[in-house]
Structure formats: C-alpha cells, structure tokens
Design brief:
elongated; Jelly Rolls; three-stranded antiparallel beta sheet; alpha+beta; 226 residues; Arc Repressor Mutant, subunit A; 8 helices
Length: 226
C-alpha cells in the first residue's frame, strides 16, 4: 500500500517536481492515515473544523451549499489528486465554508496541519507547491463568483459547454456528465429555467441538443453570452 501511495502522491500538484524518494521520506517521517468513504457518507459539514491536510487519493468529493429552501448549489468537484479546502487549513477561522459529500467511493489521505507545516519547513518545494495551490484557489473563486453573480443562465450554460469542450481538446460535440437537475443545482436555478435557456441557445443556432449530447455550432457566439 505504501508504494502505491507514493505513486499516487507523486502524481498530485502538491508533490509536483518532488522525487519519489522524497515522497517516501515524507511518509516515513510523518504520521498520517487514509479514510474510506462511500456515496452515502457525509465527509464534512459547513462549520466543521479543518485541522488536517486532506488529499483525495481515489474517487471524488462534491462541495456544495444548501439554501434555506433546500436548493443545492455545487461549488466545486474535488477529484483525485486535489486537496480539500487548502485555503482553510491555516486560516484564522479554519472551518469548512460548505458541505462536502462523496460523489462515489472515495479514499482520502489525512495529516494533521502541525505535522504538515513541519514537513513544509523541511522541504521548500513542498511549501512552494502548497502556496501555489492556495493562490490558484483565489483565481478559481473569482471566476466562480463572476459566473454565479454576473452571468445569465444562458451565459453560465455557454461557459460550461465551452469548458467541457476544452477538456476534450476543443471537440465540437460533448456529452454531459451531469443530469439537467444536477446542472440546474450547479447554477442555482430551477430545472425548468435551465431547460428553457438550453432551448434558447439551440434556437439561436449556437448548439444542437440530442439528449445529453451537445454539438457546438457557433463557438464565437457562445463565448459572447453574458
């Protein structure tokens, strides 16, 4: 398991440009454990303390907010290799800002923040990588705030479709991995409003929708949607 864990960690951004031998030393000199979660578990609730470095080894987690009416807003999907709430780890108020739940069977690496801090003092590359990860969070949040607060539903959909296209090398045909309800939750809108906006984009000649398959007809117009 240890050798397998070294391989997993070596492929993450946190251990980027760090030799496997250094990763082995990191594991040998520090106390850690790995916890397993199923889709029916709750990983963390908003307000829970963030006292541990938490790195997803396998599977994925969903970070989401819940409004008073019970509507879900998906903030982020935390895939294997990513750290959970890195910006909260050394914050003065080190608590989860949102609920976090497993999307599937998920394995997470845990190390107490004091132990992790000592490890970063001993390894400048590890410290640099962690600072870079936290800095990138600011850019992600700025983009997320702009998308949620300033863009129309059509704009959010257009942006999402283009992002999914970029993930597969700019292909014009994508297949949605989220259902319409999940997509509506992601954008904090009703399913009906989402379907209406999707139809409007199709009527405008920007896309063709066939079930979960979307073909982009006019990327230029999609990119101008606000």
């Amino acid at each position: 398991m240890k050798l397998n864990l070294v391989d997993h960690l070596s492929q993450t951004d946190l251990f980027s440009n760090i030799d496997k031998t250094e990763v082995e030393v990191f594991l040998e000199k520090n106390v850690y454990n790995i916890k397993e979660y199923t889709k029916n578990d709750v990983f963390a609730l908003a307000g829970d303390k963030v006292n541990y470095l938490m790195l997803v080894i396998d599977g994925s987690l969903i970070a989401r907010m819940v409004s008073e009416s019970g509507k879900y807003i998906q903030i982020d999907k935390i895939d294997a290799g990513r750290i959970v709430a890195p910006a909260m780890l050394f914050a003065s108020q080190n608590v989860f800002p949102v609920n976090v739940i497993p999307e599937e069977n998920t394995s997470v690496f845990f190390m107490h923040r004091d132990c992790f801090l000592s490890a970063m003092h001993r390894n400048e590359k590890l410290l640099h990588n962690f600072i870079q990860i936290v800095s990138d969070i600011n850019r992600f949040l700025s983009t997320k705030i702009h998308s949620l607060s300033l863009k129309s539903i059509r704009g959010k959909l257009a942006e999402y479709i283009l992002q999914e296209s970029d993930k597969i090398g700019g292909e014009n045909t994508i297949r949605l991995t989220l259902s319409k309800q999940e997509l509506a939750d992601k954008f904090a809108v009703t399913r009906q409003a989402l379907s209406r906006s999707l139809s409007e984009l199709e009527d405008a000649g920007m896309i063709i929708v066939k079930g979960r398959e979307i073909t982009i007809i006019n990327k230029g117009c999609l990119s101008k949607e606000e």
